[in-house]
């Protein structure tokens, strides 16, 4: 299967600080990918590397088979909506569409006009007078109308109220279904990821902690609850992701491919939020949270 994004040993350093390091991932095309992690984990850096706005310090990255900075043809394949859903306050909605047509050789003017009309946006309205949700929808329209193969969104709904956020995500998923886009979506809101994403990447400590299809990740992770026990006493094929203890009880989230036979444990399913928080928990020793990729 074609890779939409392939990174090998990818790293980016600002001065003496690594914003991203040792990043190795292979994202197949045709997915809506959720990229999640705490502030400072390297999410925006990874997305800007993929979008050709930054160059790596170490390692390599290809997007849709080519280097992100290889030229206009490569840039035309990728749509990018940044965290602040950038628009020009002094330009009208119509002027944004005309600018998009001038800058993008594959611009779909009919799609852009139709989407603006369906959203109820006034083409004569200046962007600075739009609500936050309306500006986000305008930015999404600009990203979609260039007809990219990959759409990158860097926390586009972070500042929106719940209704505007829901409308934005509905519009995104309609576009994905209609145009068969690949999408990489960075978000702090796990609820949005649960509704939209079928592939997950967790970044923490500037490194990839886990990557894979959501269905497979949830199938290979379990919650164990039982008498207090040292994690080193668990079988070798049960990799501890996170651990919690009381005086008498231990609770682990583990990754394993095999069955769990120990009758002392109560085995429970985990949610996507449980999975994300477990891999973001810096209290768990790093050697127990190996970076891994789970694919079919």
From TrEMBL:
Residues 5-230 form the ABC transporter domain. Keywords: ATP-binding, Nucleotide-binding, Transport. It comes from the Bacteria. InterPro entries: AAA+_ATPase, ABC_transporter-like_ATP-bd, ABC_Transporter_VariousFunc, P-loop_NTPase. GO terms for molecular function: ATP binding; ATP hydrolysis activity. SMART domains: AAA. It holds the Pfam family ABC_tran. This is ABC-2 type transport system ATP-binding protein.
């Amino acid at each position: 299967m074609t890779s939409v994004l392939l990174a090998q040993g990818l790293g980016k350093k600002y001065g003496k600080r690594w914003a991203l390091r040792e990043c190795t991932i292979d994202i197949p095309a045709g997915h809506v990918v959720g990229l999640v992690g705490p502030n400072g984990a390297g999410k925006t850096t990874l997305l800007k590397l993929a979008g050709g706005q930054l160059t790596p310090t170490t390692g390599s990255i290809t997007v849709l088979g080519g280097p992100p900075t290889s030229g206009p043809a490569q840039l035309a394949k990728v749509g990018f909506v940044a965290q602040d859903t950038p628009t020009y306050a002094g330009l009208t909605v119509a002027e944004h569409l005309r600018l998009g047509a001038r800058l993008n050789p594959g611009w779909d003017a009919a799609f852009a006009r139709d989407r603006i009309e369906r959203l109820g946006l006034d083409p004569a309205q200046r962007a600075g007078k739009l609500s936050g949700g309306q500006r986000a929808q305008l930015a999404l329209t600009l990203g979609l109308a260039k007809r990219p193969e990959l759409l990158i969104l860097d926390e586009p709904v972070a500042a929106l109220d719940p209704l505007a956020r829901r409308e934005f995500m509905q519009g995104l998923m309609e576009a994905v279904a209609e145009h068969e886009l690949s999408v990489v979506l960075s978000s702090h809101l796990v609820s949005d990821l649960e509704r939209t994403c079928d592939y997950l990447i967790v970044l923490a400590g500037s490194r990839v902690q886990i990557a894979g299809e959501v269905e497979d990740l949830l199938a290979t992770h379990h919650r164990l609850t039982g008498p207090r026990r040292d994690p080193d006493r668990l079988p070798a094929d049960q990799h501890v992701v996170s651990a919690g203890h009381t005086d008498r009880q231990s609770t682990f989230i583990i990754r394993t491919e095999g069955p769990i036979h120990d009758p002392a444990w109560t085995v429970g399913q985990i949610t996507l939020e449980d999975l994300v928080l477990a891999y973001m928990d810096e209290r768990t020793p790093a050697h127990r949270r190996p970076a891994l990729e789970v694919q079919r």
